[in-house]
Design a protein that fits this description.
It is a single chain. By secondary structure, the chain is mainly α. The chain has two domains: 163 residues, no CATH class; 34 residues, no CATH class. 55% of the residues lie in helices and 6% in strands. It contains eleven helices and two strands. Strands 1-2 form a two-stranded antiparallel ribbon. The longest helix has 16 residues.
């Protein structure tokens, strides 16, 4: 599918003045979260997604349906983050819909990678496992170290996915796949530099110094 000029994943977009996440970003995050969390196809149709989001916000689903439709058809599907997963039969309504059914959607491999960067998504550990099941040999080189990091530092591990996907959203890397964290080398990130420095220094400390350092950190976090 040809991607239109200006097609942009907005899940990290914020208002310049307020610094708050934009409505479009919230909507796209909500769609991806529903596709990641729900196993019920009825929840993953355009109407089902609209109704789930509307219920959480206490508004009419018809008021947000057009936005959901646009995000799916103009952003998430063209970017290959989501795709049609099948069709549900329809007993009432227009004949063409009864014959063809209503499409429901699921995340692609690229979509699962995006979902790993969104904190609202449940069972990210399961999604990570599913992602690596579909990975090529190059991507699988990351599996062991990321799995180990996830056990000892889940927040740090998911922050890596967040930085990776955000770099894509900001056009700092050209594509999410193949999954290659070395792409982040061209995207300076002070927090990652600090984390690397702390980890390197911590490994060189004596046992007592490590305990003292942890005690200090426990006092300020």
């Amino acid at each position: 599918m040809k991607i239109k000029s200006g097609t942009h994943l907005s899940i990290f977009d914020v208002f310049k003045i307020k610094g708050e996440i934009t409505g479009e970003a919230n909507r796209q995050r909500a769609i991806i979260t529903i596709l990641a969390n729900s196993s019920n196809p009825a929840d993953r149709t355009r109407t089902g997604i609209s109704q789930r989001i509307a219920k959480e916000k206490g508004i009419s689903w018809k008021n947000i349906y057009s936005g959901i439709f646009r995000d799916l058809d103009e952003i998430l599907i063209p970017l290959e983050i989501a795709e049609e997963g099948g069709r549900l039969p329809l007993r009432r309504g227009p004949k063409v819909l009864q014959e063809n059914g209503i499409p429901y959607y699921h995340l692609t491999k690229k979509g699962v990678l995006v979902a790993l960067s969104i904190s609202e998504v449940k069972n990210r550990a399961g999604l990570l496992q599913a992602f690596f099941l579909k990975s090529n040999s190059k991507e699988k080189e990351y599996e062991r170290i990321i799995t180990n990091l996830l056990e000892i530092s889940p927040n740090f591990t998911y922050s890596i996915f967040q930085k990776y996907v955000k770099a894509f959203c900001e056009n700092k890397i050209t594509d999410l796949l193949p999954f290659d964290l070395s792409k982040l080398k061209s995207v300076p990130d002070e927090s990652l530099i600090i984390q690397k420095e702390v980890l390197g220094a911590f490994m060189k400390l004596s046992k007592q110094d490590k305990e003292d350092a942890m005690g200090f950190l426990n006092e300020i976090t």
